[in-house]
Each structure stands twice: as C-alpha cells, then as structure tokens.
Amino acid sequence: MLHLLAAMADLTLFTIPKGFTDPHVSLIQRNALASWQRLAPAVEVLVLGDDPGVGEAASQAGAIHIADVASNELGTPLLDSAFRVAAARASGELLCYVNADIVLLDDFLAAVRRLPRDPYLAIGRRWDCDLDTLLDFAAGDASLRAWATHEGALDEGRGSDYFVFRRDTDFGLPPFAVGRPGWDNWMIGRALRLGLPVIDMTESVVAIHQNHGYGHVAKAAGPAWEGAEAERNRQLAGGFDRYIHSPYNATLLLGSDRMRRARSRKHLRAKIEAFVALRPIARPLHRLIRLIRRSK
User: Fold this and answer.
1) β-pair partners for 121
2) What is the pLDDT of residue 228?
3) pLDDT tens across 121-158, in order?
4) Which of 13, 166, 246, 273 has the most neighbouring CB atoms within 10 Å?
5) Nearest to 121 by CA among 175, 177, 184
6) Mean pLDDT of 78-99
C-alpha cells in the first residue's frame, strides 16, 4: 500500500544547461530557470556545469551553481557524476532532474506533493511549443498552461524530460552524456528492474518544452541530436536491438483526483512487448512484434 505524502514536498531540482552563448538557447534556458525559481521556497534549484554563462545565469536566477561535474572527452557533462553531485549537495529528500529547456509551473509542485512516500520514479510527457520571447509569468500559470495545450503538441511518449525520485535511490546510472538520446529510456527500464513503481504525471503536469535546434551536438551526423555520443549512450543502455522503454511502461498514472493503475490499451501493449522482448522464453515472438511495428 502506497502511503501518500501529507505535507509539502521538500524538493531539489537540478539541471545541466548548455552554454548561454546562443541567443535562443539562452532565452529558453532563462525561461526555464525563472519558472523553477518561482516555486521557491518549496523548491531548491541546483545548476550544474561550467559551460559559458552558466554560473552567471544561475546567479541571476537565484539558483545554486555547482561547476564541478565530470565530462567526456568532448566536454559534454556526464549524468552519473551530476546525479552524485546533486544527491550530495541537495537539501531536499526528493530530487528532480529536469532538462534545461523545460518550463514547470505550479501544477508540477502540486503533483509532486501527491506522490507516494515509498521509493518510486516519477516521469512525464511534455508539451512541445515554439517560443522566441521571454515568458510573461505575470499572466498566471493557468494562462500559460492554456496557451501551451492550445498552441503546442503533446509529445508522442518517446521518453521523459524530468525524473522525480527519492534522494537515497541508487539507479546505478552509467556515464551517459547529457542531452543525448537513450538514457531517459534506460532510466524507466532500470526503475522497473529495481521493482520501483514508475508513475506517469502527464495528466497532472503541463511541462512546457521550448523547441530548439541541435547545433550544440559535437560531431553531429544525421538528424537532430544524433552523433558519436548518441551511439555511445545507446551502447551504455545495452543497445536498442531488443526494447526501448517509454512512458507507456509506467505502472501508475497520477490523475487529477487520484492515483490509478496504468491499464490503457497502450500501456498493456507496452507491457506485453517488454515481456516478449526481455524474457528469453518469449524471444521467438520478438521478431514478429518488430515486423508489426515497422509495418505501422
């Protein structure tokens, strides 16, 4: 039986921004930082990394800057180091890693307050929106949510841009490069293997993703965020030959009024596909499922 939190959550948000040299990247990251700081004092914000302008932006936003995070040979910060640093520095018993282009509003904090006391991993899909100006938070969070859901598009459910978990949870995170694909899918699968509930907060949280390009990706090849680091992330995740976990693998859904089991057709299909792909006894069916997916 999950025991719900009765009191205000003590939450530490942490992020690893890109450098603030590109005007649009700078704008969307400042929007994100401003949105998180508006959740204070219930939320503490840690900004990790030493790319150009990161320390200054953290100071201007009233966040805590921590420069010392391990990087790979291309200078990209590594997530295992960032998670360790955040756990050691955080004052909150709950941690949330969030990508630096995500705007969070008061519904996020309200949802976190309804999460269970027992260990879990909470995730959520995002609303993709085009933004080329600083957000006017004076308009109110309800107005911003309405704008995002009207003008934006709900992500198809390929991964998550934020992860909420207890500070003492050890996921055994490999040295994934931040901002490259694969690690978010790995996190969902890892939580399930550890026996943790995976809670999808999408119904309760409008997380605004500010669309952007991928010119920051070192040695990029192909579309979007592909490149050598993406391939390395996939290798660290065990490869994508068998199965990619997604929010549809969630075990619980945090609705507006209650927590319920994830039993929709898409969730059941994801569970069946994961069973077939990840268990040797069912492996003969895996090729059939892959063929069906490709045909669609």
Assistant:
1) 165, 198
2) 87
3) 999 999 999 999 999 999 899 999 999 999 999 999 99
4) 13
5) 184
6) 96
What's the pLDDT score for residue 243? Answer: 81
Domain ranges of the chain: 11-254, 263-295
CA distances from 109 to 39, 73, 148 (A): 7, 37, 18
pLDDT tens digits, one per residue of 107-126: 999 999 999 999 999 999 99
**157, 125 contact by CB (below 8 A):** yes
74: pLDDT strictly greater than 80: yes
Is the pTM here over 0.90, yes or no? no
3-state helix/strand/coil string of the chain: CCCECCCCCCEEEEECCCCCCCHHHHHHHHHHHHHHHCCCCCEEEEEECCCCCHHHHHHHHCCEEECCCCECCCCCEEHHHHHHHHHHHCCCCEEEEECCCEECCHHHHHHHCCCECCCCEEECCEEEECCCCCCCHHHCHHHHHHHHHHHCEECCCCCCCEEEEECCCCCCCCCCECCCCCHHHHHHHHHHHCCCCEEECCCCCCEEEECCCCCCCCCECCCCCCEHHHHHHHHHCCCCCCCCCCHHHCCEEECCCCEEECCCHHHHHHHHHHHHHHCHHHHHHHHHHHHHHHHC
Residue 258 is which amino acid?
R
d(CA 67, CA 78): 13
pLDDT in tens, 169-179: 999 999 999 99
Nearest Cα to Cα of residue 100 among 59, 141, 135, 58:
58
Architecture of domain 11-254: Alpha-Beta Complex (3.90)
CA atoms 5, 161, 66, 134: torsion sign: negative
Residues 217-241: tens digit of each pLDDT: 455 455 445 688 999 999 998 876 5
